[in-house]
Amino acid sequence: VRVFFEFEDSPSSPPVLRIYSDDDGTVVSSKKKNNNNNNMLKLPDLIVNETQNVRVSLLGSATTPTTTLRATVQYIDTNNCIVKKTRNISVSFSDALSAMFQFQSVRPHTGDDDSFASNVPLLMNMMISANNHRHKIVLLDTSISVPHDNLVSIRSLSSLHKNGVQLDPRDQYSFGYQVLPKRAVQDMSWGQVSVKWKLRDTPFETDATVTSFSLPNVNVSPEPFRVDLKSPTRGSVGVPFTFDMKISNQSEFSESFSISIDVDSEESSFCVAGDTNCAMSLNAGDTKSHRIVLVPLVVGLLALPNLIVFTENSKKNILSDADRRKIFVIQ
């Protein structure tokens, strides 16, 4: 007994066809349109009332047009004549996975709320959903590709178990990424995420599929205000060092800044010399500096006094806890 599988001609490329001989999940052959791979499955001799299971795996997507799969069974009857029987099956597809993206600023953004600022770190969350109603899916791996290295830096904060992560029908799984926009763009995607997956009831690497999702189009504007901090990473008790800050106004308008350095005299690990509360005004494109001197009083890994930089118009602190600097102090 031989079974032939083929696709009807279609103006669009049909999906991949994989043929299985039995329930052990072993792929016997596979075929794509205009590919010469064998698409015939030879079955063992069958006796009366015996059944042989044949399983066919089709791989398509929501963009794949409705496809007709033609199965032809060929056998020799009792009169030693070749008999062929054909059945056509119409198949339509939907995406097994879908993705949703969310962004969160690590540092308060003082510009247009509808866009991100260059050189301001973000957290990106990708939520993968299993859309298949009947089959369980195993996520095997993910990767990100960006069009240009100088456009954005994206680093994964999540890792998958070596055997993957199983998703039941309609389950979701979240991946976290650290994103740093490097330059301004308008209505542009940062690249795409590729997700490698398979159905749970297939062998581990057999039938692994890669589905790619484009990252959302974003607007990135030049960072309107920038604070650069400079201080040593190592020091000694009683030895003074400078804590420098440089504030830049990269917007198109003048802005006033209020600088406050939080020093609690009862619990401070430093003796502070310099103006800990001051204000400055910067025209568009201007840069100004401010300096204080710190003297460590104790040993250990110490966080420098908290620095708060407010803008008068937005009333937002430009810095966050992620910007706070530290110094390792020895005796």
Tally of contiguous helical segments: 0
Oligomeric state of shown chains: single chain
Low-confidence stretches: 32-36
The average pLDDT value, as a whole number, equals 80
Secondary-structure element pattern, one letter each: EEEEEEEEEEEEEEEEEEEEEEEEEEEE
β-strand percent reads over 45%
- What does the main sheet amount to? 4 strands, antiparallel
Considering DSSP H and I runs of 4 or more, what fraction of the residues is helical? under 10%
Q: Label the overall shape.
A: elongated
What gap, in angstroms, lies between the N and C termini? 87 Å
Structural class: mainly beta
For the secondary structure, the number of strands is 28
Order of strands across the widest beta sheet?
Answer: 4-1-6-7
Rounded to an integer, what's the Rg over CA atoms? Answer: 31 Å
Top keywords for this entry?
331 residues, mainly beta, four-stranded antiparallel β-sheet, 0% helix, 53% strand, elongated
Outline the fold blueprint.
Blueprint: E1 2-7, E2 16-20, E3 27-31, E4 40-42, E5 55-59, E6 67-76, E7 82-91, E8 97-105, E9 116-117, E10 122-130, E11 137-145, E12 152-156, E13 165-167, E14 172-181, E15 185-189, E16 192-199, E17 209-214, E18 217-221, E19 225-230, E20 234-236, E21 241-249, E22 255-262, E23 270-273, E24 277-282, E25 287-296, E26 300-303, E27 306-311, E28 326-330
Parallel strand pairs: 9-18, 20-28
Antiparallel strand pairs: 1-4, 1-6, 2-3, 2-5, 6-7, 8-10, 10-14, 11-13, 11-16, 12-14, 15-18, 16-17, 19-21, 21-25, 22-24, 22-27, 23-25, 26-28
